Amino acid sequence: MSERTWTNWGRTSRSTPARIVRPRSPEAVARALRRASAEGLGVRPVGAAHSFTALARTDGVLLETRGLAGLRAVDRERGRITVGGGTTIAAVARIADRFGLAFTNLGDIDHQTIAGAIGTGTHGTGGAFGPIASQVVGLQLVTPGGEVLDLAEGDPLLPAARVSLGALGVVTAVTLECVPAFGLAAEERAEPLRPVVEGFAERVAGADHFEFYWFPGTGLALTKTNTRIPAEDVGPQASRMRRFVDDEVMSNGVFELTCRLGRAAPALVPAINRVAARTVAERSYVAPSHEVFTSPRRVRFAESEWAVPLERLPEAFEAFRSALKRSGLRISFPVEVRATAADDSAWLSTSFGRPTGYIAVHCYHRDVRREYFRIAERVLRAFDGRPHWGKLHSRDAADLRTRYPRFDDFLAVRRRLDPGGLLRNTHLDRILGLP
Ligand SMILES: Cc1cc2nc3c(=O)[nH]c(=O)nc-3n(C[C@H](O)[C@H](O)[C@H](O)COP(=O)(O)OP(=O)(O)OC[C@H]3O[C@@H](n4cnc5c(N)ncnc54)[C@H](O)[C@@H]3O)c2cc1C
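Above are the sequence and the flavin-adenine dinucleotide SMILES. Below is the predicted complex in structure-token form.
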């Protein structure tokens, strides 16, 4: 691959930018934007390239943000830290920990950059917690015109800029409101699927962080229930405990092998899934929050995820399960089901205005079944589903406008900040309806 050939983590998007730039300061970002504009080239910012959609694709200038990393400021009294936009979640967690602080909640990996993660509405699970962007109390944004804006708490641009799809400018710093460091007591077990689905809202309400995985073709749910505990209750050995669902199922070489086997002999998939689901042992462990929330994902995959109103999750899940059964498709990757609180801090948050349940479908990267994703999309959008901005979907602005009450307000901010369309690409044109 040449220096200029770019591809994302999931291998679902690639391009050959005219130039790749790696600025290390807001001033260098501003210069790169002005130069591209003068040359008539478009620009797309990219973080860790962990989005599956073509958000970062460009044949103009690809602006890599990893040089914009590290601690900028700390406000110990208010538990706030400011980091460069290209700082990875893992690095932010380490920095926060130095000050006895932590993210309130996280998704299931920590490789993303903080600006990239908030930019697509990245979330974890927990009925009382919003997505990561809801912890953002300040942002530094370099606009397409090269102006450096410091958006403090209460700034009217923040609700647009928290989840901005890289369409408003380049985020060079992020201020996060953290919580005191804490531990999690995790419990994982296999349970019959039906009661887990039917009682999903109650399970979410009754736990700090609840989620489940379902292996298609089986009647079992692998449930994960995490309870927040004081940091001092986490023993020194705790983090070395093994975690079945993440370590054994989603991440390791055995799973890669079963995916390959399933690809070579699809008829075996239901049997493989039954074995995988049944071999789950009941397991409990305790570890620092960040180590429980996130784990490595060594098996590469493609993904689509839909956000539905929490109270409709059981009905939506059942409709999806029936449609999948009817299709006869054999899928070896588990379906992941999570929940978050309503989040009105960002206009494009997938949980804007409503407590939300999420259904995520994955495919092994060598065997991406577009048909599987199409089934999920067809069924789940009928439940007022909103696609995760970073995960595969085929929605366009006409449809998305009906799902986001502040969609046009976001577009108005974009028009104001990027009147010349410097940050456009074909994917953004489709989802934002840009002429
Ligand atoms: C293995 C894996 C696990 C995942 N787990 C979860 C999960 O648990 N929960 C969840 O919600 N999502 C999850 N995702 C999705 C992922 O969190 C998002 O796609 C996230 O946006 C990726 O962050 P990134 O740094 O790679 O950003 P990129 O994919 O590089 O960029 C995302 C968007 O942000 C923009 N952007 C990036 N940096 C900047 C910047 N500095 N300024 C302005 N715009 C910028 C880009 O232009 C693009 O529009 C997962 C993805 C993978 C591959």
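Residues 342 and 355 are 4 Å apart (CA to CA).
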